[in-house]
Amino acid sequence: MSQRRMSSVLAALLIGSTAPVLLPATDASAASCSSYPNWVAGKSYVTGNIVRYTDGKAYIAEHDNPGYDPTISTWFWDPYACDGGSTNPSDGFVVSEAQFNQMFPNRNSFYTYNGLKAALSSFPGFAKTGSDTVKKQEAAAFLANVNHETGGLVYVVEQNTANYSHYCDWSQPYGCPAGQSAYYGRGPIQLSWNFNYKAAGDALGIDLLGNPNLVQTDAAVAWKTGLWYWNTQSGPGTMTPHNAMVNSAGFGQTIRSINGSLECDGRNPAQVQSRVDAYQRFASILGVTPGANLYC
């Protein structure tokens, strides 16, 4: 398992631990999205405040918060209907089911396309930010890294069972309630370590610390943990993979944030090349150029 499992989980601590409350969207006759003030990170907001996020869409504060990201802190913010587009984040996903099947012809039946679509609502900024090209590049980049982590969406759990007992950090105040060997790698980005299960579960409103098996038995939960890492964690890098793609840092920075401490800077060029090859292939399937800065 990569050293990213010991990466900081501070980003996830910004998110409330209560399950997301998805209230009905406000009537679509609301004002233009552009009429609302731009969201500002770190600015205090109170319940009822409406802001325009960087994706051009509006969000309403369902709870007071000190400027959390509306596309990540979904307990504090809900999409707010205005004339900027649909409030259903899974509408118009840039990867069709046929393209998904083309990317993963030998995938495990556990990793369903519908499970991925169901997970998108937890991170509405994913593959929905920027131009159509950027949206497709981000989707291709995420799926290329997932492809590498799981052998083409074949593996649901870590194959080296000898590692299983290593992923319990007893220094954490909550310990390992599911057992010493319960926090091995699972899912599309192979979530592991008790503190990562705790952080991901808190962010998603799911008790993954107490029930880590959900990541290998519920396809939507599995996909959500992969999207959680992609959208909120920097790992050994300096930015989240999501930010790397939407801010034009390039695919190489997604590799650095996922497994840079073991692969980048010449440590394992074959593994990096494997990820790049998959990204170029998936970008081609989606009909976009891969962009610059492919390597780390």
Give a brief rundown of this model.
Helix content is 35%, strand content 4%.
What keyword list fits this structure?
single chain; 296 residues; mainly alpha; Seminal Fluid Protein  PDC-109 (Domain B); Lysozyme; 2 domains; three-stranded antiparallel beta sheet; 10 helices; globular; signal
For the largest beta-sheet, the strand count, sense and barrel status come to:
3 strands, antiparallel
Give the amount of beta strand, in percent: under 5%
Total of DSSP H or I helical runs spanning 4+ residues: 10
Name the average pLDDT.
84
Uncertain runs: 1-31, 84-90
Number of domain modules? 2
Class from helix and strand fractions: mainly alpha
Give Rg in angstroms. 19 Å
Shape from CA axes?
globular
CATH class of the largest domain: Mainly Alpha
Q: What is the element string, with H for helices and E for strands?
A: HEEEHHHHHHHHH
- Kindly report how far apart the N and C termini lie: 19 Å
Signal peptide: 1-30
Pfam families: Glyco_hydro_19
Organism: Streptomyces populi
Protein name: Chitinase
